[in-house]
Amino acid sequence: MPKLTVKLDFEDFPDVYTCKGANRSPPIRVEGILPNIKSLAVLATTSPEEGPSKVAWILWNLPAVPLIPEGFPAGGVVESPLHAVQGTNDFGTIGYRGPCPETGKGEAYLFRVYALDLDLALAPGANWEEMIRKMQGSLNQSGEAIAFAVR
């Protein structure tokens, strides 16, 4: 399976993408998308210094674009900045939840991008396990990028 190249415009989170700032979802660059790809999905997970990882963002049915723009609002179905469907994260909200490490601690975020040959028939607000199950047999490519937040 050919890999996607996934890039963020930063290694350390600018405040605007964290709970200290506007808590906006960051832009994600995606290179090497195959011609048969119909949609993209994103799964962002936290890796705190201590404790278990948590799912911070679940997004699917994005068009197959080389730049996933920043600033997806909360909500199950969004039309701007691109049409997409979002799921419920491990913090109990629908949409992106930026890094929010405790003072003096750090947190890494892993952004995985999946390239699919179909749109997922999945209800808004679904969880990450439901998304992964629906992707079975339709996943053509994937890639990931990591960024860090320190408080």
Structural account:
This protein is mainly beta and 151 residues long. 5% of the residues lie in helices and 37% in strands. The protein has one helix and nine strands, in the order ββββββββαβ. It has one helix at 128-135; strands at 5-7, 28-31, 39-48, 55-63, 67-68, 77-78, 84-86, 106-116, 139-150. The strands form two sheets. It has a six-stranded antiparallel β-sheet with strand order 6-7-4-3-8-9, with helices on one face. The chain is globular.
Give a short synopsis of this structure.
The protein has 151 residues and is mostly beta strands. The chain has one helix spanning 128-135; strands at residues 5-7, 28-31, 39-48, 55-63, 67-68, 77-78, 84-86, 106-116, 139-150.
